[in-house]
Amino acid sequence: MLAQPRVPRNAKGVASMSRVAIRCRAGHAAVTTVRVPVALASEAPIELDVDALYKRAEARAKALIQLEEQEMADRTKVKIVLPCKIGLGESWKIVGKCPELGNMKPEVAPYMTWNQGDIWTLELKVRPGILSYKAVLRKPDGQYLWEDGPERTFEMPYGGPAKELQVTGIKFPPF
User: Fold this and answer.
1) What is the model's pLDDT at position 17?
2) pTM of this prediction?
3) Domain(s) of CATH 2.60.40.10: residues in the chain
4) How far apart are CA 21 and CA 37, in angstroms?
5) Rounded to an integer, what distance in angstroms lies between the CA atom of residue 145 and that of residue 123?
6) Exposure winner among 26, 65, 81, 171, fewest CB in 10 A?
7) Residue 67 has pLDDT above 90, yes or no
8) What architecture is the 76-166 domain classified under in CATH?
């Protein structure tokens, strides 16, 4: 049984504040009655079917995942290749103006993979349209060093065969 919260009332006895108390335990199916003070100084019980809410949320999440998977099938696969030798503990990221490349936030952008011969690669499927991006070097201390100059661009077609994108001529701003 839930304890009744003390509700401040004004001079006319009308509740001046609303509170909702919900009590449930993970893994247990329950219907919880909630008492909510209303402006008429009476309390109205509200019943919540927690299991039904969880099932609706799960169904919605599954539908969104399915929609994303359908969209992914229409996207073009791109392999970004960056040949460059860097220092121990350093790594490359490609940061771009799309969710797959971190929306220009290097903390979120995917890391490139090192391959034999100091070839860095990143394979992903991106949305069709103009892809704007920059190469970013992550230093061992966690700082990011952005390449100098304007953003690079590449037009991604709708569907079609996989593309390979070579990133060369990276220059950094003078210190």
Assistant:
1) 47
2) 0.58
3) 76-166
4) 11
5) 22
6) 26
7) no
8) Sandwich (2.60)
Which candidate, 85, 104, 99, places its Cα nearest to that of 152?
A: 104
Q: CA 43, 46, 51: angle at the middle one, nearest 5?
A: 160
Tell me the pLDDT band of 10, cut-offs 50, 70 and 90: low
**Rounded Cα gap, residues 113 and 11, in angstroms:** 69
Cα–Cα distance for residue pair 61/70, rounded to 1 Å: 14
pLDDT level of residue 119 (50, 70, 90 thresholds):
very high
Coil vs helix vs strand at 171:
coil
Determine the 3-state secondary structure of 19 from DSSP.
coil
Q: Which residues pair with 119 in a beta bridge?
A: 83, 115
Q: What is the largest CA-CA distance in the chain?
A: 81
